[in-house]
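ok new one. same drill as before - structure tokens go in, u give me an amino acid for every spot. 776 of them this time. try not to just spam alanines like last time pls lmao
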């Protein structure tokens, strides 16, 4: 192709040219500039502009336009033989076809890119695209070949992270081809690599994948072991996705025929899904409902299925709602409610038909898009052939123009040389003027430095004189201080002599007084000794009698004290210390009203059903274990145990001594209680023993506390706060801490809470409730 128009090489004109090209390409896309004018630009710039437009259309999902512009750019690049850009153009066109699932067409362009003579060893993205398209056309061996090339590259580089990713892509290929044995072997290699890297998140994922492979191979025991190991790693490192692993364990147990274990792990999965992820919760509830149905537990199946159907979230997911309607139809059929079963089955079919119709429409639109792309490619190539014919004609005309332009350009160059010579002369004269100005400035600066040095020397002399004067003053002060010290020392010696004289006189007087006192004391002692000897004989007999009586009194006193301590301890086990003290001192305990008390209720779910299969000794032992642990927890958090009623446990904070920390104390205690029960559930489940699950409800408000009864004392609390706390527990969920809005407002800055909405409560109306997830 002959060269296009010649452009001057100044920076300003280059910038104007680039700006004009952008405007022209934009105007061409909008239909304002004819195609012939755009073609007059340089090929290298045009190719870049077309590729830029193709990228913009690609990002906006306008694939037909993206293909059109890419092919136009390709036309210029093939002529220029700009191999790196040509390689990227082929790959980009292949990506367009790949995104529309035209994988055969995509592979054509990928192979063209592969034939371009450039060094693309470091670029593994093309091999990945080959693998995707071959996999999508079920050419598994070809896809595996390209993934093998990628793997060899990363193994040579010892890039462990990308080696693992490539292994995982190959595993996906094997799973797609139902080659689970080969997938399992590769997953074992990945596990070995990851254990050396110590990456818990990826290790947990690989354990989960190995469990999936064993499950697909129907080795359910091995599958469950690997799923359990994945759950342990995820729980230990607080990783996301624990609910999905529990669901996989449940599916493996269901496949092995253990429906009860499957239900247990589905319940665990449900408890680990945040309340905000409503769709995932509904999917799990749907699985639980199906499992209950297949186990002929129609009551529980209907309960979980109802929450799926009645949820507003399910309506946004037609597949989930359709499955819910189908299970509902089967449940009502099992209950011999055929009219309702038919109604739900019809709803299921309506959604299923609408989904099938939507899929058909989507497939039709996809086919239309694919046809449009293929047609656009053919039309564009035809237009480009026609354009090349026009280019040949235009180039012949431009050859004549070029000759005239060369002559005019030669004259312009000569004029430009003359202008430059004049500019150089002017620049030289300006440089000389600048040198003279610099010399003058240097002279002035040296004069200023000389003056400043003279001033500095004067300042230094003055400072030395000041220092000499200060030294003379300091010597005078020292001389005065020495004279004053000598005079004060003489005065001190005179004072010491006077005080020594006075001390000697006082000692003489003291000795005379002491002699007189000793003579009088000796006389008195003789008289006293005579009286003592007579009294000792009299009191000896009476003291022996009193000693025996005192021993009897002390024995009785210690026995009374022991009995009193036992009764006080029993009283403290029944009543708070303050109330017990009041009862001992006054004989009665006055009820008190408290402004802020936090009441905590807990209750075991499924207690009646599970306890029916336990012996009385086992039942009491299990209750005692749980309640003793609760007693220790609430004592640490300054709460007062009120009572236990069967499997229900009640305690309160802020009584009998009022405090402001009782809402936070109650929440902290409830989190510890929940943690204790979760550990116990896991231990029981691992041992294959039945276990109880717990709900907790908490409310804060005013109440009255005091002692009731005459013969058997009982410390209790009354008021609407107690009733509301009980409603919090009965309207809660298993494994959750359900609190009222009043409690939430007092602890929201200390704990992570989740709003669950307004719940309709019996005799109370709608109450705002929150779940406590943990410490903030």
């Amino acid at each position: 192709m002959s060269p296009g128009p010649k452009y001057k090489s100044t920076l300003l004109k280059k910038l104007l040219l680039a700006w004009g090209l952008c405007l022209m390409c934009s105007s061409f896309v909008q239909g304002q500039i004819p195609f012939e004018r755009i073609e007059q630009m340089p090929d290298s710039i045009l190719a870049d502009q077309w590729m830029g437009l193709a990228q913009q259309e690609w990002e906006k999902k306008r694939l037909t336009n993206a293909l059109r512009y890419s092919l136009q750019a390709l036309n210029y690049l093939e002529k220029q033989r700009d191999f790196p850009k040509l390689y990227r153009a082929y790959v980009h066109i292949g990506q367009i076809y790949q995104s529309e699932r035209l994988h055969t067409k995509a592979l054509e362009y990928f192979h063209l890119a592969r034939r371009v003579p450039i060094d693309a060893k470091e670029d593994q993205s093309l091999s990945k695209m080959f693998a995707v398209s071959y996999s999508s056309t079920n050419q598994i061996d070809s896809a595996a070949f390209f993934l093998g090339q990628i793997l060899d590259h990363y193994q040579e580089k010892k890039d462990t992270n990308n080696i693992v990713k490539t292994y995982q892509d190959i595993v996906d290929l094997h799973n797609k081809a139902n080659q689970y044995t080969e997938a399992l072997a590769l997953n074992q290699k990945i596990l070995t690599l990851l254990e050396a890297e110590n990456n818990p998140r990826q290790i947990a994922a690989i354990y989960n994948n190995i469990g999936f492979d064993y499950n697909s191979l129907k080795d359910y025991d091995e599958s469950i072991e690997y799923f359990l190991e994945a759950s342990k790693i995820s729980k230990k490192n607080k990783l996301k996705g624990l609910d999905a692993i529990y669901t996989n364990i449940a599916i493996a147990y269901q496949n092995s025929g253990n429906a009860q274990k499957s239900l247990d792990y589905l319940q665990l999965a449900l408890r680990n899904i945040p309340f905000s992820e409503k769709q995932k919760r509904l999917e799990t509830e749907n699985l639980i409902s199906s499992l209950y149905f297949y186990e002929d537990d129609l009551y529980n199946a209907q309960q979980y299925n109802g929450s799926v159907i009645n949820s507003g979230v399910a309506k946004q997911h037609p597949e989930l709602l359709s499955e819910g309607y189908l299970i509902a139809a089967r449940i009502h059929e099992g209950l011999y409610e055929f009219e309702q079963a038919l109604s739900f089955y019809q709803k299921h079919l309506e959604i299923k038909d609408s989904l099938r119709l939507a899929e058909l429409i989507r497939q039709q639109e996809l086919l239309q898009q694919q046809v449009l792309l293929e047609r656009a490619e053919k039309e564009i190539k035809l237009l480009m052939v026609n354009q090349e014919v026009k280019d040949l004609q235009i180039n012949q005309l431009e050859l004549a123009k070029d000759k005239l332009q060369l002559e005019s350009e030669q004259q312009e160059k000569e004029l430009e040389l003359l202008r430059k010579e004049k500019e150089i002369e002017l620049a030289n004269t300006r440089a000389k003027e600048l040198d003279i100005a610099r010399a003058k400035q240097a002279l002035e600066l040296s004069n200023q430095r000389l003056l400043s040095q003279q001033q500095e020397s004067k300042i230094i002399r003055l400072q030395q004189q000041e220092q000499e004067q200060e030294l003379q003053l300091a010597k005078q002060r020292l001389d005065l201080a020495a004279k004053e010290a000598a005079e004060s020392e003489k005065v001190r010696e005179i004072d010491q002599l006077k005080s020594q004289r006075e001390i000697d006189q006082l000692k003489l007087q003291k000795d005379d007084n002491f002699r007189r006192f000793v003579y009088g004391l000796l006389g008195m002692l003789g008289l006293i000794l005579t009286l003592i000897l007579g009294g000792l004989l009299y009191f000896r007999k009476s003291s022996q009698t009193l000693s025996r009586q005192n021993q009897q009194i002390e024995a009785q006193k210690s026995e009374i004290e022991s009995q009193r301590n036992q009764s006080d301890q029993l009283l403290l086990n029944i009543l708070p210390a303050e109330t017990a003290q009041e009862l001992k001192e006054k004989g009665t305990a006055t009820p008190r009203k408290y402004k802020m008390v936090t009441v905590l209720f807990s209750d075991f779910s499924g207690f009646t059903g599970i306890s029916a299969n336990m012996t009385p000794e086992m039942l009491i032992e299990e209750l005692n274990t749980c309640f003793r642990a609760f007693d220790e927890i609430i004592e640490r958090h300054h709460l007062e145990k009120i009572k236990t009623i069967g499997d229900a446990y009640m305690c309160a904070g802020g009584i009998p001594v009022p405090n402001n920390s009782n809402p936070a104390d109650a929440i902290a205690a409830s989190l510890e209680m929940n943690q204790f029960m979760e550990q116990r559930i896991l231990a029981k489940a691992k041992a294959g023993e039945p276990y109880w699950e717990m709900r907790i409800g908490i409310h804060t408000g005013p109440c009255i506390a005091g002692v009731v009864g005459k013969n058997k004392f009982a410390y209790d609390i009354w008021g609407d706060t107690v009733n509301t706390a009980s409603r919090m527990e009965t309207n809660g969920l298993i494994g959750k801490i359900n609190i009222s809005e009043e409690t939430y407002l007092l602890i929201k800055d200390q704990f992570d809470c989740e709003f669950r909405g307004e719940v309709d409560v019996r005799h109370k109306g709608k109450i705002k409730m929150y779940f406590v997830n943990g410490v903030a």
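The first helix runs from residue 11 to 29. and btw The radius of gyration is 49 Å.
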